[in-house]
């Protein structure tokens, strides 16, 4: 049984890794490899440090938290007190660091500058930048070979050909670098890879302004990332905006307006609806992106709906805000047990199902929910959630606390999973409003970006779930 803020949730987990498997073998002297120096990878490093376990963090980017840096202009909706891992805080404070104000909602850039960069500095050369992991296997073992497998070290290959060995792998490589495609059926639209498609959440009113102003822009997607981008684009002069969604109408994105349980979410939807109704944003419902091709007049984006009917729009810029998916290809030689729908570990799927949960109602979970038939390999952080958009840093921190305890052989601590989240939710719209009033954080979106949050939504089976991101 596991307690969540919404009550007690019965959790039955298949246990793949026994304590003996996780701690025995000839690999004990090797470091633990952590893939990715984002918030969760660095939190894993903090817990490994506290446990006195050698580790190496392998980060693909030329800076730590390279994915987060790409949305550095976006302000998160969970305050600092939920964004700082407990072990990281202890290490940092022992080094003389002063934590940022606990109810502050940082931008991605602030998270890096004020928390993650000082944290990474503590680990020195155990954080290796420009180290992209291209594959993980077990030394001398392909996926089929069994006898003695559990004693074999992990073999990690980087894209420059370097190979490293590790006793365990904590894969915190995220999903930001594997966005969903434009194609409506989950396959790339024909020609999608031949035209330029912008990632979700461009810095429309900042660094990317010139890229969009005065251009015809198409935004594809029905989530809060799409809504945030649309509202920012609506601030630009002479910029025709088209918004394409698969659904027959935008009711889900608009939310409940004045009657919405979260006023800020209602405000976001109300403003978006007003722009659509005034014609500032042209909404194309029932748009199933099928084909994209460059023409002399711009990029033609063609929808073909399930009945075969086509509609098309010609634009200069395309913003794909269709969500993310995990890339498990680096672990293809390992034995993974993935949920067929979400691509999360199978045991985790019912706990994070966006049809049932928002991020605030996901129960605490740790090593048992994250284990695979391959002992010692754990995908953690936002990657562990697969396609579920219900991830919070706070849940990722508890994941790595539990996993590191298991690697250390402390199974009592590993299985004592806890999450201290308020019933009112982590991504508080009232905090957003308070902060905006305090410091007038306007980013160009009418009323300030903070008044158009990516809110914590209470989800129903009809609406699907999306959280802070
Ligand atoms: C716009 C936005 C707003 C969000 N707001 C909130 C919020 O308010 N509150 C909240 O709790 N959560 C929020 N989230 C969700 C989540 O907390 C973040 O996405 C968080 O960054 C996830 O941390 P992570 O460490 O799991 O992955 P990431 O931050 O994605 O880090 C993964 C790291 O791995 C590296 N990497 C990738 N592939 C490889 C490879 N092959 N080899 C080596 N390194 C690799 C990347 O460069 C990156 O540095 C938000 C997300 C987004 C996108």
Based on the model shown, name its key terms.
about 475 residues, five-stranded parallel sheet, four-stranded parallel sheet, globular, binds flavin-adenine dinucleotide
Describe the fold and architecture.
- The protein is an alpha/beta fold and 469 residues long.
- The protein contains 16 helices and 17 strands.
- Strands 5-4-3-9-17 form a five-stranded parallel sheet. It has a four-stranded parallel sheet with strand order 12-11-10-16.
- The longest helix has 16 residues.
- The structure holds flavin-adenine dinucleotide.
| Percent range of helical residues | 25-40%
Structural class: alpha/beta
Poorly predicted runs: 1-25, 440-465
**Secondary structure tally: strands:** 17
Beta-strand content bin: 15-25%
Looking across the biggest beta sheet, what order are the strands in?
Answer: 5-4-3-9-17
Mean pLDDT, to the nearest integer, reads 86
Note the overall shape.
globular
Distance between the termini: 28 Å
Rg over CA atoms: 22 Å
Largest sheet: 5 strands, parallel
What is the number of helices?
16
Ligands bound to this protein structure: flavin-adenine dinucleotide
Strand and helix layout:
Blueprint (H helix, E strand, L loop, with lengths): L1 E3 L2 E3 L9 H5 L8 E4 L3 H13 L3 E4 L7 H5 L9 H4 L2 H9 L13 H15 L4 E2 L4 E6 L15 E5 L4 E4 L1 E4 L37 H4 L4 E4 L3 H10 L7 E4 L6 H4 L8 H16 L2 E4 L4 E7 L2 E7 L5 E6 L1 E4 L28 H4 L14 H4 L6 E3 L1 H4 L8 H15 L3 H5 L13 H11 L30
Parallel strand pairs: 3-4, 3-9, 4-5, 9-17, 10-11, 10-16, 11-12
Antiparallel strand pairs: 1-2, 6-7, 7-8, 13-14, 14-15
Helix pairs in contact: 2-5, 2-14, 8-10
The site of flavin-adenine dinucleotide has 39 residues, from α2, α3, α13 and α14.
